[in-house]
Amino acid sequence: MSASTTIEETVRDLLRSRAPLAQGRADLPDDLRLGAGGLGLDSISMVELLLDCERRFGIKATGLLEGAPLTVGRLAAHVREAVQG
Amino acid sequence: MIAARRTFDALERGLEPLAMRHPSLALAGADALGRLRNRLSRRWPSPQQIGILFPHLDRRAAARVAWSLGALEARNRLLVACIERAGLEPVRPMVRTPPDAFAALRPPLVLGTFHVGAVQALGAVIERLPGPVLILRQGLLYEPCPPVEIASTEGDDQHRAASFRRALAHLDNGGFVVLALDVVQGAGLQVACLGRTLELARGPFALARLAGAPLVPIVARWRQGGVEAEAGEALAVDTTLGPAAWEGALAASAGGWLERYLLESPSELGLGLLRILLA
After folding, report:
1. For B208, phi and psi rounded to 5 degrees?
2. Is residue A19 predicted with pLDDT exceeding 90?
3. The Cα angle at residue A68 between residues B147 and B142, in degrees rounded to 5
4. pLDDT (tens digit, 9 = 90+) per residue, B54-80?
5. Neighbours of B47 (CB within 10 A)
6. CB pairs < 8 Å spanning A and B
7. Distance from CA of A48 to the nearest CA of B (A)
């Protein structure tokens, strides 16, 4: 398993721990939204998830909440790129 | 009944131009109109409604509180019209809070308010806080002056998350965050208040927890033609509790503070909050 895959799987595990709708789901596709119409995370849970990512990976997860809807793939890619520089 | 309501509405609107030049005089006029309107209509609130929330008041005292709430609402309607037209400029001279009144408040700090008293005048009051201020509110009633900024909480969960994140960063950088505790847009926490159940927004309590910042209640009230503000003590909570229980306990503490404040000053209860408590 590559480092990239490990990072993205860890992000998905963090999601499973925060989003009841993600628990027990092996598949969390890239285009799945974190908020309404997707995993149903509310605003506070979204921020807590980003703080989880920052603590777990030692990165800054800023700017993700602005603009396009935040998806599983966008979050995972952001974390991967931040970790790998 | 409808004709009387329209007449009072027209009279209140007629005070708006006067309020731009002589706000204290116009607000005194609105106070008198609102009081008379409530005395004649005996509605919203009625003395009976006041009696439900404040059963220790006798009928005459409950009626006086109802008249005062009619006056408060009319004052606040005129104040909002004023702010929409000219921002906080007409409000600033009415603030009676001494410049050093908040010197003891040290950021990072979450200041939580309720829809009581002169809530719309708080914008002018918090300009006196000793540090940068971020207000989280629904919509933009006026353009703030630095070091006060406003972040809107309108929009979907992601927009609200962005505002919440901005507030966390503001606290991390040593600022004040001011927001209403009794406006629930997302998740809520139910607390006891005046023998009823009141839903408070979870956001302010989660914000205090995640930032490790105290939460202090702050309210404004009309006094002798001016506005006075009062900040309470930091709300106490058992720090050994887990996140959800901690937030619930802090919310309960806020509900208790509001109850004590209103028992002492029932005439400060806003009509919107009264409706929620009676629902």
Report:
1. -60, -40
2. no
3. 30
4. 999 999 999 999 999 999 999 999 999
5. 19
6. 46
7. 8
The 10 Å Cβ neighbour count of residue A62 is 13
Instruction: Mark yes or no for CB contact B158/A44 under 8 Å.
Output: no
Number of H helices, E strands in chain A: 3, 0
Is the pLDDT at B103 greater than 90? The verdict is: no
Strand partners of residue B113? B180
Write down the domain spans for chain B.
2-86, 95-278
Q: What is the mean pLDDT of chain B?
A: 93
Q: Where in chain A are the domains?
A: 3-84
CATH 3.40.190.10 fits A3-84, yes or no: no
The pLDDT assigned to A1 comes to 55
Per-residue pLDDT, averaged over B242-248, amounts to: 96
B165/A47 CB distance under 8 A: yes
Contacts of A66 in chain B (CB under 8 A): 162
> With a threshold of 0.90, does the pTM exceed it?
yes
* CB nearest B158 (choices: A51, A62, A65): A65
CA atoms within 13 Å, Cβ hemisphere of B134: 24
Question: What chain B residue is nearest to A49 in terms of C-alpha separation?
Answer: B161
**CB spacing of B164 vs A44 below 8 angstroms:** yes
